[in-house]
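Consider the following input, taken from an annotated entry for Uracil-dna glycosylase superfamily (Micractinium conductrix).
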Amino acid sequence: MGDAPLRLVIVGHNPSQHAWQSGHFYSNPSNWMWRILRETGIAPPDRIRGAHDDRLMPAVAGVGFTDVGSGTPGTDSSQFSSADFQRWRPGFFARLAGQARRASAAVPGCSCGACGAPAVVAFSGKRQFTELFQLPPGSKGSKGRNSGSSGSAAASSAAAAASVAAAAAAEPGGGGGAEAPLPTGGSSSSDCGGKAAEVALQARRPSSVSTGRQWVLPDGWPLPLSTEVWVMTSTSGAAPMTREARLAPWQALADRLAQDAWPRRCVARCSGGIMHRGGSVAVAGDPAVDGGVGVAAGAGGGGGAASGSVAATNGGG
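Applying the prediction step yields:
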């Protein structure tokens, strides 16, 4: 996902076997992802040709990739249970929080580690989003496995924070220390992400989830609430739907992203809990343009396209 403030992070389920072997996100020819990104303009068609250009996306378009199940290849998503997602969750949350902290380091005056958080996180399918919530007590998860009860909200939040901190400490570059998730509530915001929205955090899984922006997020969500969360239609060729139905949510997302200039200009608004306007930084991420902050998509860190060797190098989950 790189080390600069991003407009968008696209979150997949887990790397397909094709993506794992090719070392590129969404590389299966039957997957619609790159056609959709180019057609909607999320990926500039004159700069991005397809999956083999995934590492250019952070610098060219401000778009990074990761998976909930990073580092665990498998084309048949039904082979993974709710228990697998609960096992993946701390590492996934730690990757999001870690990228935001690294990006925030480029924002002068930022001390909260959240000023450089991505503008939008978009899940390329409903399941990888809904599985981040806990099932009600006694419910059966995917493949008939019981995911356990949610417990009290306070206990759930504390457990989630502890799990993310432990995973962050284990991540390469994590510093060996236990870092808590980024601040999520209140009015904490930056000019990158705008003001925090009225978003609810809850442990229990919603009864239904529609595509588009989400207003209920899983307890322990590691990014500030100024980061929008969207759920998109699946780009898998195995998911039956019309071209129009598949494309519509992505076009809506493209229209949303068009509201944010790229490169992003982030302004620190935190200092010991006091909001203020600090210095700003334009993050183009394209050395050819400004000799500034260069970024590269971490294949293993993103997990969606990591061969075994790349995953070992970049810490794919």
